[in-house]
Amino acid sequence: MGSGGRATERNNSGTEVVKRAPSSKPPFTLGDIKKVIPPHCFNRSLIKSSYYLFVDLFFSFLFYYIAATYIIPLSAPYSYVAWPVYWILQGSVQMGLWVIGHECGHQAFSDYPWLNDTIGYFLHTGMLAPYFSWKYSHRRHHSNTASLENDESFVPKKKSSLNSFARVLNTPPGRLFRLVVLCSIGWLLYVCFNVSGRKYEKFANHFDPKSPIYSDRERFQILLTDVGLLVASYGVYKVGMSQGLTWLVLVYFAPLVIVYGFLVVITWLHHTHRSLPHYDSTEWNWLRGALSTIDRDYGILNTVLHHITDTHVAHHLFFTIPHYNAMEATKAIKPFLGEYYQFDDTPIVKAMWREATECFFVEADEGDSDSKGVYWFNNKI
């Protein structure tokens, strides 16, 4: 097989051409893929994982100290420069911490499930994220990736389900509006109201233990998540009462906006590209769905974010591989997967606008009776 598939290429005239990923049943199994990955890539080292955790915690607390000690007293115009720099640096480091919490949910941090969940719970709760609630919904996303009926997040709409307002959202101002919402409150809309999530027969969110997202045996941990968030929120409230609302917004909340902007953009772009197929129940199976994702290049942020950005294909295939082994695993599977491996190095801001433009809904190819259950992104209403 080849060395992997580039999702976009340029023809002789310089025009960008989309190269679809294969949507047929792969000629290999998950076991076949696993055999090409060096066995040590599956080893979880508590020492290595803890090293990355402590490094991120060190820089996060260092940035908190710098902000509280040196940036707060600054006057304009210096503060106008210092605060955005702090928000970006702190938000990037805390997104790295969020990724470690995400690995804890996948049991990729260590060989000890109780330790993984304890660390993940405190990391995510400290950033006001519902650890167990998201862990379980995210697990279902991994179990149903690219399924139009059962995937849990960023489920694209079929062309047949669009309403009249869709034409407004499919204009340049509409695309800008969608991107602003995605980057600012997209995370809140998802966890609070299940926006862009799987459709359930009744209201679903990540805080109600009786939400249809969860099974009976998971409901106690959803309640435990809620208790943690209430305690964390009370702590944040006490800090705000002590330091003031402005201090709280500048030092604590603004970096979280960066974190959750990163999170939704990264997740969205991993599963949104015109080269990627989605499937209905007549065509979907787990391996085809898991391969319907794409690695992207975020430059230096690949390292800061522990390579969640450029090793996502491997992560969907083997989610217990720790991030420090994911690059080696990705390098091993690329030549084996050939065109089934998708990668796009388009600059991220450009990719965001392009995907918001080109990936508005999904539809099956007309006249192709052999793949009626395979759907592709389009924007021609």
Structure notes:
The protein has 14 helices and 8 strands. The chain is mainly alpha-helical. The strands form 3 sheets. It has a 3-stranded parallel beta sheet, with no helix packed on it. A 3-stranded antiparallel beta sheet has the order 4-8-7, with no helix packed on it. A two-stranded antiparallel ribbon has the order 2-3.
- Radius of gyration, whole Å: 21 Å
User: How would you write the strand order of the largest sheet?
Assistant: 1-6-5
Query: Quick one: biggest sheet?
Result: 3 strands, parallel
Helix content: 40-55%
**Overall outline:** globular
What is the distance, rounded to the nearest whole angstrom, between the alpha carbons of the first and last residues?
Answer: 37 Å
Structural class: mainly alpha
